[in-house]
Design goal:
Distance between the termini of chain A: 24 Å
Oligomer: homodimer
Order of helices and strands of chain A: HHHEEHHHH
Helix content of chain A: 40-55%
Radius of gyration of chain A: 17 Å
CATH architecture of chain A: Orthogonal Bundle
Chain lengths: 145, 145
DNA sequence: TATATTTAAGACAAATTTATCCGAAATAAG
DNA sequence: CTTATTTCGGATAAATTTGTCTTAAATATA
């Protein structure tokens, strides 16, 4: 559904969000370890999220990554997905046609529209705050123990 | 959402279905042309669909591909997608965890389950017959004119 | 100010997906 | 039976995604 890059990015964001709520900055090493993702690749993905102003980075000793805790409620899954994968998952044509819309639909257009709209709504209504919360409560996992 | 392979495969199936209803067999060349897909790649994909008994192939002169017209109502989008991409789109974990279920969910598990279930239902309820029909009626396109 | 620590950036490499190519096998038709 | 046509199957190639490595830049702290 999402790219590997996006999957890593979402998991990383959730971990960073939680540590931020606890008042910590985290290093790429930690993020990679806790999300079971490759370190260097995680670093690249975090750069992307920083550029999109979804997370904050600090260089040097005691540096690392964190999220503005006040923004946790306003950062959505849609923001994360869009920053990394763009909008093709919820806006693109199901059959890959470059032009596909109501007046010039591919054969699956209207069938897919319903699902894609629901996906988009879900992404828009899911905040980083709530994802982080389920993880904090031990009700979800970011990797297998 | 789906792989390119799958997109080509679905478009090909729709075109073949329509020609089959008209009583024709079609050659890979035709399929590729009418779906704007690469010929050799289309050939490979059709092989897969033949192996899964979703379409029928005939070698030699006057050969080509067709669909059993009596099966058009029972062949679903789910069949086509499963044959090519497997079940990961509607069964896999949204964050790529190998193990992810109700009792050991990733943070997006329950949010995604709703969407994925709707996707699966849609795929299951959409038949090749109806997709072919909208195309036959000129109400949908397989490529840009 | 020197040093150690940490992210940033860009080049490079591996893996996977998307395709191509070619010879073999089947078969219809003369 | 020969020939032309068409799919089959496997090897190969190109493109994209996924991932690594190395050096530079920033900065906290002594």
């Amino acid at each position: 559904m999402f790219s590997k890059t996006c999957e890593h990015g979402i998991k990383a964001s959730i971990y960073i969000a939680n540590q931020s709520k606890l008042g910590f900055r985290v290093k790429v090493q930690d993020v990679a370890k806790e999300t079971n993702s490759p370190v260097a690749f995680t670093a690249k993905i975090l750069q992307t999220l920083v550029k999109h102003a979804l997370i904050i980075s600090h260089k040097g000793p005691q540096g690392g990554f964190n999220v503005d805790v006040d923004k946790l409620e306003s950062i959505t899954l849609l923001d994360l997905v869009f920053a990394i994968d763009g909008d093709s998952i919820y806006n693109g044509c199901g059959l890959g046609l470059h032009v596909c819309n109501e007046s010039n639909p591919c054969p699956v257009h209207f069938k897919f529209k319903v699902v894609r709209d629901e996906l988009k709504t879900m992404l828009l209504n899911t905040t980083l705050a709530e994802l982080a919360q389920t993880f904090a409560e031990g009700k979800s996992i970011l990797k297998y123990a």
